[in-house]
């Protein structure tokens, strides 16, 4: 979605210009993906599929998630879906997910460009599965259920949620996603990538896009992300060691 630090706003239409704005992975969703990839490392029988609805130019980003460790990625993209609100978006996503097998569907709770928190619960409603939002910690996962902690009405709840389920996470989980390792930057992952259009989903034109979106926005307020603090290191041994450790951690240096 549009980076709220680097975006172009169209004041005539009162909308962010998505074509000209820099796109980033939504922070809440970033933690969802990071947790899934960590879980795959803990349990190599886990299968991680990344699913996104958006323009076709997101293909590169989704393929990079495969290079990071996801098993496959699916981009749902069709001109008919342009202008979809959370209801229409949830309908499109759930229509695809109806055809898939899963134990847990992970989403972000809020988005930088919307913040309604509707997508996870609405997808769960469409799929008729359990769900919970504002999750800040997944304590454990078994074949049958997940133990999570979530913030609700100023309290922290510890919940046991039966699978299959939709878990909507928050950026407060603070899990590092990492970067594609240097040797994998040009790795061919075409066989693990799929593009799904309405030719496959066959949704009515009146149910998606602007026609299927009853939400009417009175005014948009652009949220601001917290800027990441930059670290300054010296040219002494300690500074050099810090840089070497950083490059090793990101996979750019092997010593």
Could you list some keywords that capture this structure?
single chain, 255 residues, alpha/beta, Rossmann fold, 2 domains, five-stranded mixed β-sheet, three-stranded parallel β-sheet, 6 helices, 10 strands, 25% helix
Q: How helical, in percent, are the residues?
A: 25-40%
Shape: globular
Strand content: 15-25%
Topology order in helix (H) and strand (E) letters: EEHEHEHEHEEEEEHH
Number of contiguous helices: 6
CATH topology of the largest domain: Rossmann fold
What is the CA-atom radius of gyration, in angstroms? 19 Å
Strands, total number: 10
CATH superfamily heading of the largest domain: HUPs
User: What is the mean predicted local confidence, pLDDT?
Assistant: 89
Provide the number of structural domains: 2
Q: Strands of the biggest beta sheet: in what spatial order?
A: 5-9-6-7-8
CATH class of the largest domain: Alpha Beta
First and last CA, distance: 37 Å
| SS-based class | alpha/beta
CATH architecture of the largest domain: 3-Layer(aba) Sandwich
Low-pLDDT stretches are none
Largest sheet: 5 strands, mixed
